[in-house]
Specification:
The chain has about 270 residues and is an alpha+beta fold. It contains 8 helices and 12 strands. Strands 2-1-6-5-4-9 form a 6-stranded mixed sheet. A 6-stranded mixed sheet has the order 3-10-11-12-7-8. Helix 1 runs antiparallel to helix 3. The two termini are about 30 Å apart.
């Protein structure tokens, strides 16, 4: 556990320029995604074994996995299968390029259908997880499939698919426009958006209210738009008429939760929690 805390302290101490989601997509596709933060983390844990407790929760495991090339080489089934439809390729151990995932940008995103699914990240019984890199501009998804074998998390394969093949396709296409077009964003607000956030007069309390289209600019969060992540903790994904989109900071306590609902063929933002 001390190792996990040390990683978090490194992130808390880093105040340099944050890489945008679009920059991350470019870095990922060219294999030049290593940053100073990621290198520092790898140096920190290069000679330390992964704590056994890290395999209890996938969230603890993935921070160790994303930070260390040594861990990745030990926890990937090589040759790694890469599947795209009926096409199959393999990546040999010698050709693997370390992937630091969302650790380069200091935050990650999640998509849930309901609040119950949001608790799965804390469930030690979860044995199957898929990390999705969703390239909104390029309209494709790269999935990293993990299974827990004999108590150890292992990456089994990588799958490539078009966004249109995803159960979240309708929402993802909507979200891309919502995040990149300010006029469309306002048009996609419910008449009133329920709001829950910190009380400026009490550090230990929250305030509730509503946001209207006129006041939205004062509350609108900065949204990633080029490439986003999703972590599927084994839950069944379907064409739900509700999506909870979460932006979660790494080690800084930052979190924004946006709830969207599909009504009459149109997605609308109905609630925001900060």
């Amino acid at each position: 556990m001390w190792l996990f805390l040390a990683i978090m302290l490194v992130f808390a101490a880093c105040t340099g320029k944050r890489q945008t989601a679009q920059d991350e997509a470019i870095a990922d596709s060219t294999g030049r995604g290593d940053t100073v933060v990621a290198d520092t983390l790898e140096e920190l844990i290069a000679d330390a074994p992964m704590p056994k407790a890290a395999d209890e929760l996938f969230d603890d495991f993935i921070f160790n996995f994303a930070a260390s090339k040594k861990v990745q080489l030990a926890r990937i089934h090589f040759p790694l299968k890469v599947l795209k439809g009926d096409e199959r390729e393999v990546v040999q151990r010698s050709a693997w390029t370390v992937d630091h995932f969302f650790m380069q940008q200091g935050y990650y995103t999640l998509i849930f259908d309901n609040e119950k699914q949001m608790e799965l990240g804390k469930d030690t019984a979860v044995n199957h997880v898929v990390i999705e890199k969703i390239y909104l501009d390029k309209k494709f998804i790269k999935q990293y499939v993990f299974e827990r074998e004999n108590g150890l998390w292992m990456m089994q394969q990588v799958r490539l698919s078009d966004i249109e093949d995803s159960p979240n396709a309708s929402f993802l296409n909507f979200y891309h426009s919502f995040a990149t077009d300010s006029l469309y964003q306002v048009e996609s607000l419910n008449n009133t958006v329920d709001f829950v956030g910190p009380d400026p007069d009490d550090d230990f309390a929250q305030m509730e209210g509503v946001i209207t289209k006129d006041t939205w600019p004062a509350f609108a969060p900065e949204l990633p738009s080029g490439m986003i992540y999703n972590v599927v903790y084994g839950q069944e994904q379907d064409h739900s008429n509700q999506k909870i989109f979460v932006i979660r900071g790494i080690a800084n306590g930052f979190e924004v939760e946006l709830t969207f609902r599909l009504s009459d063929g149109r997605w609308r933002l109905v609630k925001m929690i900060t």
